[in-house]
Amino acid sequence: MHLNPAFQWTGVAGASEYEIQIADNANFDDIISALVNTTAWVSDTTLEYGTTYYWRVRALNSNAGSDWVTGVFTTREMPGETASENQQWFDPKSGLYFETEEDLIKYQTAHQEDLGDAVSTPAYIWVIIAVGGMLVIIMVVLIFKARSL
Q1: Cα–Cα distance, 137 to 139 (Å, whole number)
Q2: Measured between alpha carbons, how far is 62 from 71 in angstroms, rounded to an integer?
Q3: How far is it, in rounded angstroms, from Cα 22 to Cα 41?
Q4: pTM of the model
Q5: Among candidate residues 60, 63, 53, 9, the one with its CA nearest the CA of residue 30
Q6: What pLDDT, on a 0 to 100 scale, did the predictor assign at position 83?
Q7: Which residues pair with 52 in a beta bridge?
Q8: Contact at 8 Å (CB) between 56 and 28?
């Protein structure tokens, strides 16, 4: 099982590349570093389980570099000795793993408003569709009546 997180950030006008750094301390003493020419990067270094990491990124061009933009995250805990990767429950929206299906369902229920994909059609749209359908039927009936005269 690998822990190679993906990072993405908003681009900066005039930037020719971006420098990204990851460290397990806020001082960035021992860093994983990369220079990339896109606004996304996947770590090629496997990170440790259950560890808090700090990351920062800045835009660069031939003249200078921007200020650092920083973030922090914690990797998931190592699965139990007897658990396999297939026994864990995964929430694709958040990227989080859960030990039981019950934990996953509790999380998804608590964060349902964040899902965004389950959008229902507003009632007024159904009214518009119904009125439009009725108008089409009326038009067809009128056309047939006009031809029969």
Answers
A1: 5
A2: 25
A3: 12
A4: 0.52
A5: 53
A6: 44
A7: 74
A8: yes
> pLDDT tens digit string along 29-53?
989 989 998 899 988 888 888 889 9
- pLDDT of residue 27 exceeding 80: yes
Q: Which two tokens stand for residue 64?
A: 């200078």
Cα gap 35→56, rounded to integer Å: 12
Q: Rounded to an integer, what distance in angstroms lies between the CA atom of residue 100 and that of residue 111?
A: 17
pLDDT tens-digit readout, 82-107: 444 555 777 767 767 777 878 878 88
> What's residue 124's pLDDT?
83
Contact 143, 135 (CB under 8 A): no
Which single residue is written with the structure tokens 């660069």? 60
The identity of residue 129, as a single letter, is I
C-alpha triplet 15, 18, 21: angle, nearest 5°: 155
CA–CA separation, 33 vs 144, rounded Å?
A: 75
52-60 and 40-42 as β-strands: parallel, antiparallel, unpaired?
A: unpaired
Q: How buried is residue 48: exposed, middle or buried, by Cβ count under 10 Å (0-12/13-18/19+)? A: exposed
d(CA 36, CA 19): 7
The residue type at 13: A
